[in-house]
Design a protein that fits this description.
Elements lengths: L5 H12 L3 E4 L4 E3 H17 L7 E5 L3 H12 L4 E4 L6 H11 L1 E6 L4 H4 L9 E4 L12 H5 L16 E6 L9 E5 H9 L2 H4 L12 E4 L6 H13 L2 E4 L5 H11 L3 E4 L1 H8 L14 E4 L6 H11 L2 E8 L4 E6 L16 E5 L4 E5 L13 E6 L6 E2 L3 H7 L12 E10 L2 E7 L4 E3 L2 E3 L1 H8 L5 E11 L3 E10 L7 H9 L10 E4 L13 H9 L6
Parallel strand pairs: 1-10, 3-4, 3-5, 5-6, 9-10, 9-11, 11-12, 12-13, 24-25
Antiparallel strand pairs: 1-2, 7-8, 8-18, 13-14, 14-15, 15-20, 16-17, 17-19, 19-20, 21-22, 23-24
Helix pairs in contact: 1-2, 2-3, 3-9, 7-9, 11-12
Length: 530
């Protein structure tokens, strides 16, 4: 297939695959033809509202397929879809809608009451994602677009036009709109297909079946949907991640491929009745978005008995740009050290490790900031040229994707990228750099620890001290001193926590990423952190 934009992909798949199942939810089966026809009707509806080139339409939804349909429809008008994190507070949602000047909003019924607290002065039409009677004066998405004809606008667009606008977490300031082009998104769906081994149906073989239980406001959630749209096969979609439901779906739908964040893998392993499910259909589990511990990965490989591959990337790179393939997942072999690696860069991806003080490349094996050059690099931050320039400090020429600063610390060795941590998460104690991921890997080896995080807290003597925040396995017991003693037997003392907080749960975002800024906040309030 030589499709160049999301809308041409939708059109060609509707023609080639027709009534084949593209997406299946607990509520509806969507064929490839259904997706394209619905996007035509939605595009005509948006057009009737005066929405056109450059306009933004938004979602506040857990439902991936409806979000994808709205995304495709918008591109048929040269408009752009903005999926918004539904876990945000109403003022935060209102900021994003206002920043993007969203003119249309599709929101789930669960969020209908919240809409009354969101001024959203720029929107001219709000609808409810799910079918059902009007609520608070709002009609359903399908009832609204069902009024319009299935007529294709015929617009194709350019591969470098924006096709999606996602928002950063805003952990270091106000969220920024990240503009991703058709080229960015299609490259992400293509670059690791060989490693992923995900394919549509052929004359002699049925297509693969992919699980998607990821939020559509995250690049992985919408990106996984685009993989199925581009390559064929079918996708089983769950709007929320419920471990028992996911295990049941794998059994019932013979799911072959899944992308899971480590927290999801850990939750599946913790299911007490996991042995009752038939998981033999699984061929490949890919994982990423946050570090995984050796113990969780080893247990998962033993339990699921399928290929595993790790991916590394960012929203600004449209998702994965590095991959640790299944051949490099060998916990007990001579290459077991590679499990701490993020793998090798994908096709056409350039990597540099840069000293943030001198802005010069460092030698192999030395830690610095990871810089990326790829056709997956974002267009830029929406209406924020200063932030875009800071992200591409060497500038960008026409036809050049530029070198993007990730903010992640890492090093290269024998062609493999090793991630240490976020630059801002590094702990400097007594002049020594401590990278939390390294310490967390040891922390998670303690038999009583279920989940753990390492942060830096103020210390009068050392500037910062290493602190561990942990949750314990059900029925397990351990004192802070026992955990500290355990770690001191395994890594240098300066890297070990000086204190341990035992908690009921660690704060994570909907993607499973640990929110270390939440853990640090009580200790650093009122202080200027070096």
């Amino acid at each position: 297939m030589s499709a160049q934009t999301l809308n041409t992909i939708a059109r060609s798949q509707a023609k080639d695959l027709g009534d084949a199942t593209a997406f299946a939810t607990p509520f509806r089966r969507w064929s490839y033809r259904d997706v394209d026809e619905a996007s035509n009707r939605v595009a005509q509806g948006l057009k009737s509202l005066g929405i056109g080139p450059g306009d933004r339409v938004a979602t506040l939804t857990r439902h991936v397929v409806e979000c994808l349909v709205l995304t495709i429809a918008a591109t048929k008008l040269q408009a752009v879809c903005m999926p918004v994190n539904w876990r945000l507070a109403p003022p935060e949602i209102d900021y994003i809608l206002g920043n993007g000047e969203a003119r249309f909003l599709m929101a789930d019924r669960d969020f209908a009451d919240s809409l009354s607290r969101i001024p959203a002065a720029t929107t001219i039409k709000n609808v409810l994602t799910e079918d059902g009677p009007p609520l608070n004066g709002l009609e359903s998405f399908s009832a609204w677009y069902g009024q319009f004809d299935d007529v294709d606008t015929g617009y194709v667009g350019d591969t470098d036009e924006p096709a999606l606008q996602l928002y950063s977490s805003g952990t270091t300031g106000l969220p920024k709109g990240i503009e991703l082009s058709h080229r960015n998104l299609i490259a992400n769906a293509t670059n690791f297909q060989v490693e992923f081994q995900y394919y549509g149906a052929t004359a002699d073989k049925p297509g693969n079946v992919q699980l998607n239980a990821l939020p559509c406001f995250h690049v992985a959630g919408i990106g996984v949907a685009i993989i199925t749209l581009l390559h064929g096969g079918s996708q089983i979609v769950r709007d929320t991640f419920v471990p028992a439901d996911v295990l049941q779906a794998i059994q019932d739908h013979k799911i072959t491929h899944a992308f899971l964040v480590p927290a999801m893998i850990h939750a599946l392993l913790m299911q007490p009745d996991i042995d009752k499910y038939d998981l033999s259909s699984l061929e490949c589990i890919s994982y990423g978005a946050s570090p995984i511990t050796d113990r969780v990965l080893t247990e998962a490989m033993q339990r699921f008995k399928c290929r595993f591959m790790q991916v590394y990337g960012l929203t600004e790179t449209s998702g994965a740009i590095c991959c640790l393939g299944s051949d490099d997942h060998d916990p007990n072999g001579p290459r077991s050290h590679l499990l701490r690696s993020a793998g090798k860069p994908g096709q056409g991806v350039g990597l540099r490790i840069v000293d943030t003080t001198t802005m010069k490349d460092v030698a192999e094996g030395e830690v610095g900031e990871i810089w990326i050059q790829s056709d997956q690099n974002m267009i830029g931050y929406w209406r924020n040229p200063e932030a875009t320039a800071a992200a591409f400090p060497e500038g960008r020429k026409k036809g050049d994707f530029g070198w993007f600063r990730t903010g992640d610390a890492g090093y290269m060795r024998d062609g493999y990228l090793f991630i240490h941590d976020r630059i801002k998460d590094m702990v400097i104690t007594g002049g020594e750099n401590v990278y939390p991921a390294e310490v967390e890997n040891v922390l998670m080896q303690h038999p009583a620890v279920a989940d753990g995080a390492i942060i830096g807290v103020p210390d009068e003597r050392w500037g910062e001290a290493v602190k561990a925040c942990v949750t314990l396995r059900p029925g397990a017991q351990a004192t802070p001193q026992e955990i500290i003693d355990f770690m001191r037997e395994r890594i240098a003392h300066y890297k070990c926590p000086k204190s341990v907080d035992i908690m009921d749960a660690l704060p994570r975002n909907p993607s499973g990423k640990l929110l270390k800024f939440v853990l640090r906040k009580p200790y650093w309030d009122g202080r200027a952190r070096a």
